[in-house]
Design brief:
With 436 residues, this protein is α+β, with helices and mostly antiparallel strands. The protein has 3 domains: 1-139 and 301-339, ATPase, nucleotide binding domain (Nucleotidyltransferase, domain 5), CATH 3.30.420.40; 142-299, ATPase, nucleotide binding domain (Nucleotidyltransferase, domain 5, 2-Layer Sandwich), CATH 3.30.420; 352-433, Tumour Suppressor Smad4 (Sandwich). It has 11 helices and 31 strands. The relative contact order is 0.12.
Length: 436
């Protein structure tokens, strides 16, 4: 099929990501909840999940072809909730043809349900690819490798191999997934608040929800830094405590040890050295301590799946109504006999803003972004200049940069945290291959 303008939908229930090229248009958590009789999905639903857990569901992508027990409002099946979430994407989902990137954990029956939902919504699916294979095709790997990705309720290990083409030879599921790991971290964070601030964020649904809203950003912070400061605004008072990475590493240690053993075992059973070519999705890399436990692991960026799928769309897409499951793509070859382990570079300035578990690209050079789009109610603009991203016109306002009042013009660096009224974002660097 000829190369065409399209969008790429990456399916993972931590966040359904919709890309155009390597631009992330939408990132919608796989969660549904009732607000009265109104069904919410994505971020609004996740923001209510702890307030009324009996009227929320985050397992429907996990069991897409199953009925709901019990039903959620008028939704009687997992497909009903998936339909509602995809439908909420509106025209962004239907304006251009869709290339679907799905994990190998999707069964043929579930893929059939997905394609039926998209057809009912008026979306035109033109290709279907294994997301692990698409991501791995963007980097140089050895003869074989293990791709590690995390979903809400499971972790997927995809063993990839092949000579000229890289394909999925075997897939292994491990439990628990991100939600159970977050629960362990949340309990530890709550203990720290009780011990040092005499405040228990789990004592009410409202503060528990606030803790879980902030938890993904805290975990990401501690995956990259040894220490961080946790802040929770309870309306009348802001509680602030310090937390070290080792605290979360300790509570996750046994789970991560089992995971690392499984990764090494998967590589060894495929006939490869245990530490060779381990690829961590950006979601897997958010688990504090995992990168340190794996020698020479490569961390893939947020756009890896979309870039891999887009680069090979001519091999994936078809004009036929029957979409083949593509689980083998040409492997990337090292340029000029470079070492097979990809060398990464760290940009001198931040490339993305991390908001909860979502990474949003900073505006292109010379362009501006209203800060309120990422921190509701926050005044000011982010403008990318030659020296890097600059925060403008946020002084004398509730906006804080690393805990202090924003300046009228403030150059921002990787690791800076911007906060406003209990919400925050952190500026991060997305790692890219040296040769691409």
């Amino acid at each position: 099929m000829r190369v065409q303008e399209l969008r790429i939908l990456e399916l993972n229930d931590i966040g359904l990501r919709l890309f155009e090229g390597d631009t992330l248009l939408l990132d919608s958590p796989g969660c549904a909840a009732l607000d009265g009789r109104h069904l919410l999905t994505g971020d609004p639903a996740q923001a209510r999940q702890r307030l009324d857990p009996r009227r929320a569901n985050d397992r429907y992508w996990y069991a897409l072809d199953c009925p709901l027990t019990p039903p959620l409002g008028e939704a009687r099946s997992a497909a009903d909730l998936a339909h509602a979430q995809l439908g909420a994407m509106g025209a962004a989902l239907t304006e251009l043809p869709l290339l679907l990137a799905a994990p190998a954990s999707f069964s043929p029956a579930q893929l059939g349900v997905l394609l039926g939902i998209l057809q009912a919504l008026g979306a035109r699916a033109v290709g279907l690819v294994d997301s692990a294979v698409a991501a791995a095709s963007t980097v140089v790997v050895g003869t074989g490798c293990v791709h590690v990705d995390v979903q809400r309720h499971r972790i997927l290990l995809s063993v990839l191999g092949g000579e000229a083409a890289l394909g999925c030879e075997r897939m292994q599921e491990l439990k628990p997934g991100m939600i159970a790991l977050q629960d362990r971290c949340a309990a530890t964070v709550a203990e720290v608040f009780v011990r040092h601030a005499r405040f228990d964020p789990l004592h009410s649904a409202t503060t528990e929800q606030a803790l879980y809203d902030r938890l993904p950003a805290w975990m990401a912070d501690l995956a990259a830094n040894a220490q961080t400061v946790l802040e929770l605004d309870t309306g009348g008072r802001t509680h602030r405590v310090g937390l070290g990475r080792e605290a979360l590493q300790a509570v996750l240690a046994e789970r991560l040890r089992v995971l690392v053993q499984a990764i090494h075992s998967a590589a060894a059973q495929a006939g490869h050295a245990p530490a060779a070519s381990v690829l961590l999705s950006d979601r897997a890399a958010l688990l504090p301590g995992l990168v340190e436990m794996l020698d020479d692991a490569q961390v893939l960026d947020v756009t890896a799946v979309a870039r891999g799928a887009g680069a090979h769309q001519a091999l994936i897409c078809t004009d036929s109504t029957e979409l083949p499951w593509v689980n083998r793509l040409p492997r990337r070859v090292a340029v000029q006999a470079q070492a097979t382990a990809t060398t990464v570079r760290v940009a001198a300035t931040p490339t993305h803003a991390l908001i909860g578990h979502q990474a949003r690209a900073l505006p292109a050079s010379g362009q501006v972004q209203a800060l309120a789009a990422w921190l509701p109610g926050a005044p000011g603009l982010l403008r990318t200049e030659a020296e890097g991203p600059v925060l403008l016109d946020a002084h004398r306002s509730p906006v804080r940069v690393n805990g202090t009042e924003a300046e009228s013009r403030q150059l921002l660096r990787s690791g800076d945290r911007l906060t406003c009224e209990g919400q925050d974002l952190r500026l991060i660097v997305v790692l890219q291959d040296r040769d691409g």
